[in-house]
Amino acid sequence: MPNMSTQSDTQFPFMKMHGLGNDFVVVDARHQNLEITPALARGIAHRQFGVGFDQLALIEQGAGDAHLTFYNADGSTSAACGNATRCIARHLMEESGKTALHLTTDRGDLFAQDAGQGLTSVNMGAPQLAWDEIPLAEEIDTLELPVEGGPTATGMGNPHCTFFVEDAELIPLEEFGPRYEHHPLYPERTNVQVAHLVGPDHIRMRVWERGVGVTLASGSSSCATAVAAARRGLTGRKVQIDLDGGTLWIDWRDDGVWMTGPTLHVFTGSFTRAFLESL
User: Are 12 and 2 in contact, with CB atoms under 8 Å apart?
Assistant: First the structure.
């Protein structure tokens, strides 16, 4: 059971947030001793017996304004989660009154800004384009993998495999996603995207997240898809991406891949000791 030494016998506080339906449980451990284990993450992730989330994020003290650690629904960790980073950045900006933040993650240093009109921007860092950085299992051209459909491999702190198709709506992601999540070329598994062009610099994209499944949106997947499209000459470096849950704007600049979109803090709650002891 998690260490709750600074909490009462009945409370383990958390926040529920989402970015375009990509939903998160956020635990603030900056001023309290709260520990997340893989078993706890899996229990909270269950949408019937727990709360449900695509990712769980832990906020801790860091070299900048805060350090973020991310857990997938299966209890595994991820170095990056773009939409969760934006959600937490918005929360921290409202808490502190700041309009710009320096966050640290296992991906490295990330910088967030208030983009106005309720939107939040995060610089997700430079994309990883070399096979061993993504990583892939062998030295190979990442622009077009020797896989049916010729997908592009990209790293955004987590691995991605992007397929450009005629119509992303017609792809059965529940079958398609796991087939490639566990492809031998990806030793750490991969997030899988299917995308098609709607118009100039405008992409429709759907997502299968490793360790999670079909999600309504994914920030790192959106960044990876934008980078892949630009590398293949399908778009420029600044694009609109329409996901099942809404729209993100991606701008691949010299200093990194910036992602902008809305966020929402849905509610704040706490887990009971009975729930925690049931895990």
Answer: yes
| Domains defined for the chain, CATH in brackets | 13-124+263-277 (3.10.310.10), 152-254 (3.10.310.10)
Q: Give the separation between CA 134 and CA 225, rounded to whole angstroms.
A: 14
Tens of pLDDT along 109-126?
A: 999 999 999 999 999 999
Contact indicator for 140, 121 with CB cutoff of 8 Å: no
- Residue pair 111/122 in contact (Cβ under 8 Å)? The answer is yes
pTM for the model: 0.91
Is residue 194 within 8 A of residue 226, CB to CB? The reply is no
CA torsion, ordered 164, 128, 245, 66, to nearest 10 deg: 180
Give the torsion through C-alpha atoms of 159, 163, 167, 173, to 10 deg: -50
Which residues lie closer than 8 Å to 156 by C-beta, 6 or more apart?
80, 82, 107, 124, 125, 127, 128, 220, 223, 224, 227, 257
How would you label 121-151 residue by residue, b for 16+ Cβ within 10 Å and e otherwise? Answer: bbbbbbbbbebeebbbeeeeebeebeeeeeb
The alpha carbon of residue 153 and the mean position of all alpha carbons in its chain are separated, in whole angstroms, by 17
Q: What is the DSSP string of 65-118?
A: SEEEEEEETTS-EES--HHHHHHHHHHHHHHH--SEEEEEETTEEEEEEEEETT
**Interval 39-86: pLDDT, tens:** 999 999 999 999 999 999 999 999 999 999 999 999 999 888 999 999
- What is residue 175's three-state secondary structure? helix
Cβ atoms of 82 and 74 closer than 8 Å: no
